[in-house]
């Protein structure tokens, strides 16, 4: 008999696997009828009809026939010599053809079959064939693992969906052309994985969906005989058989379907081959069979590699469980907002770059096996973005996900605006991409004209009739005389009482989303909140909502939805049009309480503040935290057009009335770029000392970090947080051995410059040298970012991995608690990789100082200028592991020193480096800058 004369699909139309839809089929009917079929007519009847009666000669005849058609390629793919001395389980032993080869090769053989007749026939057939008359035992029915006798070889009657053996028992599980007859093929795969040992091998052969036999069968069934096409469910729910021969409906599988089932069952696919194409595969069309019989078998073997009747796989059982769902975080900062279903342990969370690297590696090396595995590794895939409307390049992302997982891929947003990726949606996004490409031509033209305006010497005359056209809209940039800038009555002259007699327009134009913590968050909220306190109100135009923003600030989110299918640089340039329209609209709507100041945090290619300032006559303060071109080149992937980005950057800075930088190296850079020194303010970052204070109640958090639920002491100075007279303001906790713990803390976004790996290595060096401190010291790394993974890898590879804790991302409003829970705070900043001066002003430094803890800090750049060694911290040379380890060691052993240094640091930060003083310095410098400009005009 030729098995599988009627074929069916392995999956339903929804794309779910067999085991996920058990209610749609009568599994019991399938099993009972299949048992009757194979009891009546076992495999091989086509080649030896007498085999049904159990004739030994018929078995020999059928065995020889199989050797000619199957055994050659079968034992080349599955090396028969590898079974010697290994425990092998065959699922569906049938009449014993493959069992004879396996036993003869020295395997410790166990056979499992669904039919009692096969379990009786197979041992008898093998006894007749083996010359050494190996003892062959049979157990006609066995469903309990404990009831299985330890004999070799052993034949059992049982169900492959419930294998009657204990876990981790076999080295190899083998099944040849059987499991496609079972209702739950994937369930059989999972059972095979269960009984296999780690790194055990699974050899499985199923029927191939794209075989010539399958195609010709469907052609004959649906066309030649005029039968109406059946749905896959109808085919799968029906079994045909008659008294003249067995015809059980079976399932067929493609390469990708088989790969997906193996991976989902806990296997790593090692190889998949397509085999077997002979003239005997077409007996139901005698004429076609006779014609094909004259084709040389060598040609048929070549065709069989793509369109053969069998698909054979070799897979290895994985030691670690396989993740069944993939979550892609976009951007990486979205980790701050992970929410269900992302907390599901079944999800593997990756970043876009990691998924891109996987796909690129497969395509670059043309490794079809790996690519197929990636295609089918997951049941579902999902991209998480702060908003589905703000996912950059949606067409590319949607097409990639749909390509990798077409049956269940999603876009998931924080705003719950989720949707499933379907082919119509992808087509829709493609047409939007085409539209955006056309509109970007007009948009770029408008932006170029704006840039020319800023270069022009006569700004006012050049802007009278300037028009911005965007998507059919016309926005006139008006040179309104109602808002012409004047220094009269704008600021008071008293620094401590300086205020703005009007409103402030704050522009945050970064095309970054999902960022909920870090120095940039602290800077934006700190400056905006104090501008609100020192003016008649602040209106913030931003690309996305900001966490912990002062509720009295009027926040207007202008999502950059237009041109979102374009590249990052082009998007950032065209976003000027969105911001300029919103800014001018806001100025016109506040004529009763006019805007007196524009403050913009510079971002790549954005000149919004400069355009609005020149046209509305309002002074512009530009916040400059470093060159976007340099940052992208040294800490990012680089820009496509760095020259243009640099020119836009310079143009924006020259258009500002005051440029605020956080460090002296940035001031030197601006002077070299032609910015007048008197228009530059070096203004280090700051802190809110009312939030970052040493008397916060952190006893429970500290106990959690140490791993002890009981706090032994809670001494602070809640009555007067500014009383720094050596008070023991840390909450002490003991570990399980009763030893007081000392926590060394680090907080940050794990940037390249933060030195997270450097700190971990120094901590490991310290504990390696001082074994007595290994039970007292604990390193707490708070935050997340690009270097966290490498820092964790370094920690995990050390013998002190249990003394290093990585908390992951935490909300911004919890950062003060984590700092206060520590005894020592580390600032291990490292030099720039290109040797240029360190231009940062670490926000964490001021937060450390306000927390009143002992600080071990690198003397790099501004850090060494603000802190004084042995007065308010312990400093070490940048890049000196031993120096940092020595600082940590000294602070750990001297509690009194920690307290004194922490108290001095808090005094200094309150005196000089609060966000309020930071903001007042900006307003005072702007007035001084405009006064200096007016004096120069008088001289001229």
UniProtKB/TrEMBL annotation:
It comes from the Bacteria. Residues 1-33 are annotated as: Disordered. Residues 89-203 form the Methyltransferase type domain. Residues 518-690 form the Glycosyltransferase subfamily 4-like N-terminal domain. GO terms for molecular function: glycosyltransferase activity; S-adenosylmethionine-dependent methyltransferase activity. Pfam families: Glyco_trans_1_4, Glyco_transf_4, Methyltransf_11. Residues 17-29 have a biased composition (Basic and acidic residues). Coiled coil: none annotated. InterPro entries: Glyco_trans_4-like_N (IPR028098), Glycosyltransferase_grp1 (IPR050194), Methyltransf_11 (IPR013216), SAM-dependent_MTases_sf (IPR029063). This is Methyltransferase type 11 domain-containing protein.
